[in-house]
């Protein structure tokens, strides 16, 4: 879990993803279209990917990817992030974390 916390706190937005996951791709696109440049951790291409996946599952990520952290805090997986986007609260989270300036 320490590796996830360390990685999640390195940038304003961190997305744990798998390169072959369509929901991960959709979430990454959402952030890019918002003007955010997130750190992307492709766990299927990381040498510690299995450990990261296990740690994400222990945090309650089900499925483990995509897992989104904003300001070092776990926001949720695809369903939660899309809900926040649709109700307008994602932008505020991003601004508060310094990922958006406008």
Automatic annotation (TrEMBL):
Instruction: Give the highest taxon in the source lineage.
Output: Eukaryota
* Keyword flag Zinc: no
Q: Which InterPro entries match?
A: GlrX-like_pln_2, Glutaredoxin, Thioredoxin-like_sf
State if Cytoplasm is listed as a keyword.
Answer: yes
Any idea where the Glutaredoxin domain is?
Answer: 13-75
Residue runs in coiled coils: none
Main location group: cytoplasm
PROSITE patterns documented for this protein: GLUTAREDOXIN_2
A Pfam family in this protein? Glutaredoxin
Report the locations given in the UniProt record: Cytoplasm
Q: Which UniProt keywords apply?
A: Cytoplasm, Redox-active center
Q: Which family does it belong to?
A: Belongs to the glutaredoxin family. CC-type subfamily.
Name it: Glutaredoxin domain-containing protein
């Amino acid at each position: 879990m320490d590796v996830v916390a360390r990685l999640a706190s390195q940038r304003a937005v961190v997305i744990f993803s798998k390169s072959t996951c369509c929901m991960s791709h959709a979430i990454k696109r959402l952030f890019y279209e918002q003007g955010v440049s997130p750190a992307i951790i492709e766990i299927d291409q990381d040498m510690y990917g299995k450990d990261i996946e296990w740690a994400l599952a222990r945090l309650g990520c089900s499925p483990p990817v995509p897992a989104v952290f904003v300001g070092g805090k776990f926001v949720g997986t695809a369903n939660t992030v899309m809900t926040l986007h649709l109700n307008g609260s994602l932008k505020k989270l991003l601004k508060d974390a310094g990922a958006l300036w406008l």
